[in-house]
Amino acid sequence: MKDILSRIIWTSLINLFQAQPNLSDFIPEVTSEREPNLSFHFANELWKYLFWLDCDFDITKLSHENKRPDIIFHKRGSNALNFLVVEVKRKGNASGFADDLEKIKNHWFGNDLDYQFGASVVIDENTGDFEIRLLDRKTPQSGILLIKGDFINRLSPPEFHSGARKLIQTKTVSLLVAEKAGTDTAGPNEDLNTWICRMYAREWSIDDIVIGTSARQWLEKNNLLPSSWVLSKEETEKIKQAGIRLTIMYSPGSILTLQPNPLKDCDTAKVIIFDADSFGLGSESKLNVEETIATFLHEIGHVFYEPAPQISAADALSTARYVQTTNGKEDEENAADDYAFQFGYGKHIASGLEKLAKIHPDTFGTDEVKVRIERMKGRAE
Fold first, then answer.
1. Where are the alpha helices (DSSP H) in the chain?
2. What is the pTM of this model?
């Protein structure tokens, strides 16, 4: 659990400065920022991942010399779910982090509070750099130290209506019921932590590019989920890093409900929207499975297309080079076709375009498209 929690804290800090790069850009003559403001914004990022808990700030603990933890994740009115306490320091006041660690060990891990985890976080709000020291109550002397550069990929919070999220909330209720009944809470607590780890430890899948439950169900029903495209691990990672996402619509229009964070670690998405009504098994006039996958891959190819650098006429003359100009749009379409071709879908690009030319002759019945069809047929032979 400690490893997963360290990733959650790290991810939340990365998200904080990506979402608010101007977090501390106050006018110094007018406003002086204090650590509670930093703690507030940081806690709101953490809460997206620790959704089964309540979050409170600067709460006075009367039985602990009126000391106040900066952030706590717990369940109000319960001690069974005292999960995480966080002490926040700005880099300009970093000397106090040692006192924070002692406070975590001697107070927040104390017998009457028993927080499972405690973290001391030192934040440079000007650069977005940070240091995390995470302690476990069971082994407080062997903490985890993390800095900004320790990971590359961020964790994704579960979608708002996901089954995993609902399961965690159910496990939380079971633990609280056990506490209220006066029965053992160690077992339910361990069970809850196990399921939390399973939820966040799941590896990213190519199927995660699909946005929307209805889109996923439709693709699965028609054997079109991205996992069925048989792409290499390298290509899958390339698609992920490019921020490519996929969803469907029904002609002439439909509603796509975007739940909180539907883009899964994606800051800028390139969303491919496919018209489900153009697909039809057993219909000679509509795209089949292979032609539909070819269409998806063609659109992904557009994302990866990079136009050749343009050279001015003056540069060409001065270097005595001849520059052959081509139609940029034609180059882009050919490059996208080639992307699908490399995965064995060249002939399906051609047959799909032939069908689309019959359905939408004004768009796909052009001479340019006919050249594309012949080009793919020739390459597929």
1. 2-19, 35-47, 97-103, 163-181, 186-201, 213-221, 233-241, 289-304, 313-318, 328-341, 346-359, 361-364, 367-380
2. 0.57
